[in-house]
Amino acid sequence: MSIDQWIAAAAAIGQVAAALLALAALMSSLRTARAQTEMSGRLAGEHSALLFEQVRMQRDSDVLRWTEKCIEALSEADTFIGGLGVEPFGDIDKLRHASILTRLSALIDQGRMYFPNQAPESQGADKPAAYQGFRQRILSVLVRAYDEISKAPSARGANDARMRMERLMVLRRLFVSEAQIAIDPRRFIALKEMNDLRVGRGLAADQPTQPEGSGP
Question: Is the Cβ–Cβ distance between 141 and 171 less than 8 Å?
Fold first, then answer.
């Protein structure tokens, strides 16, 4: 083989080798791009889940503040009813009684913003939109407490007042239980785990505000 032929063969081999190297580089680049795309998709999904969780936690914060006001009103009603039957139901008692009922009625309507009636097409078509359908359990408990408090002036003696107070205490505990179910503090634990995962991947953790009054 002549020198020119050797040179031509070497050039051809070099071109093939360059083409193979270019193909390998392209395949490696495609694999890297695919991996990056998959990772970006996963991270985007996790970020969307965290953002959604933050919105839910903000709602939980609002519900928690509303719950605190409801518990305060029910606790005041407990004390008020517990003192009935000892003395006649006077003018001061009437004013305090009306104040408690007014506050609780407002809280019930405020609660409709967080817990709208269910199946509105099934019942109460002649009522305003917010009152159509069926109340959620947490509001039904409050309505039952309102009815119990409204009957306070008819208490006959300390024993009757104590029985009414015990019924109201049961309703208050039911309300607290329903509120806890609605807020579900266990989601805070799940959010922490998701943030720990982000930190492990070198990303900044989202830090939503903890609902007021929920403790450390």
Answer: yes
C-alpha to C-alpha distance for 185 and 176, rounded to whole angstroms: 13
Q: What is the pLDDT of residues 105-114, one digit of tens each?
A: 999 999 999 9
Q: pLDDT digit string (tens) for 108-142? A: 999 999 999 988 888 888 888 888 889 999 999 99
Dmax over CA atoms of the chain, in Å, equals 128
- Residue of 38, 156, 63, 162 lying closest to 113 (CA atoms): 63
Q: Which H or E element spans position 41?
A: helix 3-82
Bridge partners of 134? Answer: 118
CB atoms closer than 10 angstroms to residue 70: 24
Q: 85: phi > 0 → left, psi -120 to 50 → alpha, else beta; which?
A: left
138: closest CA among 167, 107, 164?
107
The C-alpha angle 162, 139, 79, rounded to 5 degrees, equals 25
**Whole-number CA gyration radius for the chain:** 33
Residues 97, 164: Cα–Cα separation, whole Å: 14
Percent of the chain with pLDDT over 90: 30
- Dist. CA 87–CA 94, nearest whole Å: 13
Look at residue 211 and tell me whether its pLDDT is greater than 70.
Answer: no
pTM (two decimals): 0.62
For the chain, the residue count is 216
